[in-house]
Structures are given as C-alpha cells and as structure tokens.
C-alpha cells in the first residue's frame, strides 16, 4: 500500500509539472481572428500605349485562421481595397482622371512563423484566391467618360510581417504584395503594395 501511495504521489507531481507544457500544445491549435487596415499603393497601370497613375488608397481586411503547428498557420481572408485615379499619360500628354478602382479579394493564406512563442514573432507567407474588381471612370481630362467595368480574376499575394504580444492578443504590422491577373485585356496585370497594422486574438 505504501508503494501504491508513493506511485500515486509521484504520478500527481509529474502530471502537475507537465500540465503547462500540455496547455501550450493545446493552445497552439487555437483558431484566431485578425482585423487589419492601412495604406495601399497601386503600381501604374500600363496598356495600349497609356500609363495610368492612382492616388494612395486604403484597405481593410478580416481573416480567420488556424495554427496547424507552432510554426505554420492557414488563413481564410476577405479584403477590400480601393484607390482613386490621379492621371493618365498617352503620347506624352498627361490629363487628370476622375474615378476609382476597387476590389474584394478572397484569399487562402499560409504563414510561417519564426518565433511563435516569443514576444516578437516575425513571419512570412503567401496566398491564392480571387479578385472581384470594379473600375469606374467619370471623366478624362474633364470630358465625361462614364466607364464602368467589372471583372473576376486570379489573385496572388506574398506577405511579410511581425507580431507582438499585447494583452490577450497580438498587435502586428504587415507588408503585402498583391498581384491580380487582369492581363489579356490590352493591359498589364494589376499590382499593389499594402502596408497595414493588425490585431489578432484566439478563441
């Protein structure tokens, strides 16, 4: 009986010591939600001998993700981005353009985290999905244009960022390179750069 009591006591102590590590392992698999927002810079649109410049725009997104293991996470992300047109140049002549370009992106992302258990966690990743874009032009050089064109295209993105532990969640900053396959319509693909801040929490 004494040996049984000692065995039970030893088992209880080992279980107590192992509990924090086990809890960390369980926490790795938590689902998380991320909300982001920031600035958007489109590269100039080129095609048919015309170069179109856009103003700096903005973007917001929400993502739900799951940590497959301490270093790898998968996300389903919905993004809205928009920017106003600035000007267009053709045959050496530049004229103002009144209008905007906006898109909804639905992306599946994979992220690799370099230091998931630390206060500072750098990461990088990539995503694939679809872009639902809408281009509207009200006037070109003051002349009414009334152009309204929509398209659905393949979208890819590359990401790099860093998370910092804050309270019960994480505050972070991220850079995204976004590519949309709009080529084939006498224009190059649409590319953009997003610089955002985000907050994420597990549930």
How would you sum up this structure, described in words?
This protein has 203 residues and is mainly beta. The chain has one domain: Porin (Beta Barrel). Helices cover 13% and strands 69% of the residues. The longest helix has 27 residues. It starts with a helix and ends with a strand.
Q: What does this entry show, briefly?
A:
It contains 1 helix and 10 strands. It has an 8-stranded antiparallel β-barrel. It is elongated, with a radius of gyration of 24 Å.
The CATH architecture comes to Beta Barrel
Number of domains: 1
Note the gap between the termini: 45 Å
- Low-confidence spans: 1-28
Q: Considering DSSP H and I runs of 4 or more, what fraction of the residues is helical?
A: 10-25%
User: What share of residues are in beta strands?
Assistant: over 45%
How many runs of DSSP E, i.e. beta strands? Answer: 10
Number of helices: 1
């Amino acid at each position: 009986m004494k040996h049984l009591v000692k065995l039970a006591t030893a088992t209880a102590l080992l279980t107590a010591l192992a509990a924090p590590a086990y809890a960390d392992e369980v926490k790795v698999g938590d689902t998380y939600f991320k909300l982001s927002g920031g600035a958007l810079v489109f590269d100039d649109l080129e095609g048919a001998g015309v170069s179109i410049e856009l103003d700096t725009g903005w973007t917001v997104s929400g993502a739900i993700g799951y940590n497959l293991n301490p270093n790898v996470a998968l996300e389903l992300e919905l993004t809205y981005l928009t920017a106003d047109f600035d000007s267009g140049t053709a045959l050496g002549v530049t004229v103002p353009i009144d209008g905007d370009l906006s898109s909804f992106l639905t992306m599946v992302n994979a992220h690799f985290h370099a230091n998931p258990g630390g206060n500072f966690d750098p990461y990088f990743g990539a995503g694939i999905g679809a872009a639902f874009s809408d281009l509207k032009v009200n006037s070109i050089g003051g002349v009414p244009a009334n152009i309204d064109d929509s398209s659905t295209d393949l979208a890819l993105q590359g990401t790099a960022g860093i998370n910092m532990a804050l309270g019960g969640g994480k505050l972070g900053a991220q850079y995204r390179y976004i590519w949309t396959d709009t080529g084939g319509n006498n224009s190059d693909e649409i590319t953009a750069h997003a610089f955002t801040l985000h907050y994420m929490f597990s549930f």
